[in-house]
UniProtKB/TrEMBL annotation:
It comes from Terribacillus aidingensis. The lineage of its organism: Bacteria, Bacillati, Bacillota, Bacilli, Bacillales. GO terms for molecular function: ATP binding; enzyme regulator activity. This is Nitrogen regulatory protein P-II family. One of its GO terms (cellular component) is cytosol. SUPFAM superfamilies: GlnB-like. One of its GO terms (biological process) is regulation of nitrogen utilization. Belongs to the P(II) protein family.
Length: 116
């Protein structure tokens, strides 16, 4: 069985998804999952006045992209994602890579890389 990896990207909510999907298609990525999430990190927050009380807002809307691959090199995904998502400002996001032990297609029953 060949190695499978999950690439998880947390980035700005304002990301151009069409440009990202086209870049992934160029390197052979055929499926992705997108989720809208919230989080905080090194990016500075801002102070807002709510009903006369100052409140520091440091939780931001983010986009979470999940990709599981076996035949596309993870380094290619990292390079392609970085080229599209990099702005040079705090909050560009992070990329995490995890090994995937098993994948099962519920519809067909295929397992491993064939299930992708």
């Amino acid at each position: 069985m060949s190695d499978m990896f999950k690439v998880e990207i947390i980035t700005r909510n304002s990301t151009d998804l069409e440009a990202f999907k086209m870049k992934m298609a160029e390197i052979g990525v055929s499926g992705m999952t997108f989720s809208h999430v919230q989080g905080c990190g090194l990016e500075e927050g801002y102070t807002e006045l709510y009903r006369g009380v100052k409140k520091v807002q440091n939780v931001f809307d983010r986009l979470k992209i999940e990709i599981v691959v076996s035949s596309v090199p993870v380094d290619d995904i990292i390079k392609a994602a970085s080229s599209v998502l990099h702005t040079g400002k705090a909050g560009d996001g992070k990329i995490f890579v995890y090994p995937v032990q098993q994948t099962i297609d519920i519809n067909t029953g295929k397992q491993g890389p064939a299930a992708l």
